[in-house]
Amino acid sequence: AHQRNIQRIQIATNGILMTDEIARKLAEYKVVVQVSLDGPRPETNDLIRGKASFEKAIEGIRRLVSSGADTSVGMTLMKANLNEVENMVKLVHRLGVKKLHFSFAQQKGRAKNNKELTSLPVSEVPQALRRAYASACKLGIFFDSIESIRDQIINMRKRDYCGGGCSMLSLSAVGDVYPC
Questions:
Q1: How far is Cα 127 from Cα 67, in angstroms, rounded to an integer?
Q2: Which of 24, 89, 117, 178 could staple 135 via S-S, CB 3.0–4.6 A?
Q3: How far apart are CA 126 and CA 2, in angstroms?
Q4: d(CA 29, CA 163)
Q5: What CA–CA distances, in Å, run from 146 to 11, 117, 130, 137, 175?
Q6: What is the dihedral sign for C-alpha 83, 85, 86, 87?
Q7: How many of the other CB atoms lie within 10 Å of CB of 163?
Q8: pTM summary value
Q9: What are the strands of the beta sheet with 142-143, ordered from one edge?
């Protein structure tokens, strides 16, 4: 992509295999890297991402930040972590990350049959995000706009796609290309 002069390259990763060398290359090529972290503590994140994934992701984030890579954290909001959004802002700040992105779990794959992953008390989302937004502003963290998050909530049940094939494409760990 870099050799073909594609201007914006973004990688979404769980960060667990990030090395110093990879982080340096990503910084060198000005790749935007979003690391998925679904909670500010191992108990929450590992419930969703797998045992011991929290510490590995944190180490990956630290390597990216120290390399100078454009790093953000992505948190999928769900019942299991909604009450931790404000603490996530504080963790992101301590790690030296300046951007925090929120998304919502889609009822697909493992999440389809797991209410902890998909059920979200929608009425509680605005209040939790307002508190987190206030903290983000004080700490200098770029936060998704409340309007953007509101639009995601409104369209949450309607949406059955992610932009795959239209505005993005994905590569698997072995190089297979797929839309989302």
A1: 35
A2: 89
A3: 39
A4: 24
A5: 24, 22, 8, 13, 35
A6: positive
A7: 11
A8: 0.84
A9: 10-13, 32-36, 70-77, 99-104, 142-143
